[in-house]
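Researcher: Structure for this, please.
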Amino acid sequence: MRPGIVAAFIFNFVNCWNELFLSVTLMNSDANKTVPTALNGFISSFNIDWGSMSAAAVLTILPTMVLFAFASRHIVQGLTSGAVKG
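Model: Predicted structure, token format:
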């Protein structure tokens, strides 16, 4: 049961991490900004700061990549455990 729970946790984590529209709509103060909302702050009306946004995007992707690297075995087991007739 543990691989299935780990797989569900990973998918839920990535889904919550990428929820930009809801956080842009509901957050009013800078203290409560989520990471994707802060990345959206690099875009202005007339300019996009590509260098800073790229560096920040790489730093925000790293925790997800590390988590997936350590949990990939459990994710694959959780996804394929119900596919085999036993």
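Researcher: Any notable elements?
Model: The mean pLDDT is 84. The longest helix spans residues 50-80.
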